[in-house]
Design goal:
297 residues; alpha+beta; Ribosomal Protein S5, domain 2; Alpha-Beta Plaits; 2 domains; six-stranded mixed sheet; 9 helices; 10 strands; binds 4-diphosphocytidyl-2-C-methyl-D-erythritol; binds adenosine-5'-triphosphate; nucleotide-binding
């Protein structure tokens, strides 16, 4: 069998409202998630042994372990478990993860890897369509949306997904200042300050956003509720946001997820790439990770 390959794309929360808190401590969200061309790459080859295995490669593989805690191997285990008794007898998979996205950075890298592994394993084992979506939420709140990997409204704790209305063509620049941020610590900070901002329910336009201006007018009515808490923990995020807002042709900027990656929107991928070159020439951006290109359709 020829190896199977797929991309685990970066997830960006264009806005993120925390609307409530469940008894188990998980927060209820309302968010518009989109995916950028940036991503990790996962490859699956048939293996002869009886254990699934993982090797790590790429610029952000250092600091990650290829052990049972890695979300790629956890995805394989969760999928076998979901399948039931026959899950244990399915042929072993040799998985290869090429890590290009910074770890613990608010763009769902680990979740995207897990979702990508689920998609590949479902193909490898020729599973029915419902099997990977059943395993996804057991691996993390962001894994279901990363399985879909298309612009989506996320509600519930990230488990209620609705396809987003049509989005305009746009370019995106992602910038991470090289600090990792733990998602639980940011939710804990939010909870400690009382957390929930009361707001009227948000309605998305049924016909979508025909232009970037109309999408930005909508985003201007929203926030990322985790952003102030992430800045309080890592003040450099505020510096990133200041730099993004000052870039040529920038139309909108904000932090994604629980941080520290921030994004800026542009009329086109070319303008995003030109702004990335401009930013890379600044002293403050030394050591910052960035990626610029298209938002996936
Ligand atoms: C912030 C987001 O990235 C927005 O898309 C996600 O909500 C986080 O998704 P994730 O990293 O896959 O999160 P998980 O690994 O499931 O959860 C990590 C921790 O974050 C907190 N958490 C996560 C999701 C959620 N809806 N409410 C929470 O309170 C919980 O303390 C949880 O223990
Ligand atoms: N394949 C993986 N890639 C990245 N992190 C992984 C992976 N497997 C396990 N982890 C662990 O998961 C944690 C979260 O990493 P991840 O990169 O998904 O965070 P994130 O970008 O903040 O995600 P989110 O936007 O979903 O909150 C890290 O602390 C890391 O040690």
């Amino acid at each position: 069998m020829a190896p199977l390959q797929d991309m685990a794309h970066a997830k960006i929360n264009l806005f993120l409202h925390v609307t409530g808190r469940r008894e188990d401590g998980y927060h209820l969200l309302d968010s518009l998630a989109v995916f950028a061309g940036a991503g990790d790459r996962v490859t699956l080859s048939a293996a002869s042994g009886d254990e699934d295995s993982l090797t790590l490669h790429g610029p952000f593989s250092e600091g990650l372990e290829a052990d049972d805690n890695n979300l790629v191997l956890r995805a394989a285990k969760a999928l076998r478990h979901e399948i039931g008794t026959t899950g244990r007898t399915l042929p072993a998979a040799a998985l290869r993860l090429e890590k290009h996205l910074p770890v613990a950075s608010g763009i769902g890298g680990g979740s995207a890897d897990a979702a990508c592994a689920l998609r590949l394993l479902a193909r490898h084992w020729q599973l029915p369509d419902d099997m990977a979506p059943r395993a996804a939420p057991t691996l993390g709140a962001d894994v279901p949306v990363c399985l879909v990997q298309k612009a989506t409204r996320m509600e519930g704790i990230g488990d209620i997904l609705t396809p987003a209305p049509a989005l305009p063509e746009m370019g995106i620049l992602l910038v991470n200042p090289g600090v990792s941020v733990s998602t639980p610590s940011i939710f804990r900070r939010l909870a400690a300050t009382g957390g929930i901002t009361p707001r009227p329910a948000l309605s998305f336009p049924e016909t979508g956003w025909p232009t970037l201006a109309s999408l930005i007018a909508f985003l201007d009515t929203t926030e990322n509720d985790l952003q102030p808490h992430a800045i309080a923990q890592e003040p450099v995020i505020a510096t990133v946001l200041e730099r993004l807002a000052a870039l040529p042709d920038v139309r909108f900027s904000r932090m994604s997820g629980s941080g520290a990656t921030c994004f800026a929107l542009f009329d086109s991928a070319d303008k995003a790439m030109a702004a990335a070159r401009h930013l890379a020439g600044q002293d403050c951006a030394h050591g910052w990770w960035h990626w610029a290109g298209p938002v996936l359709p």
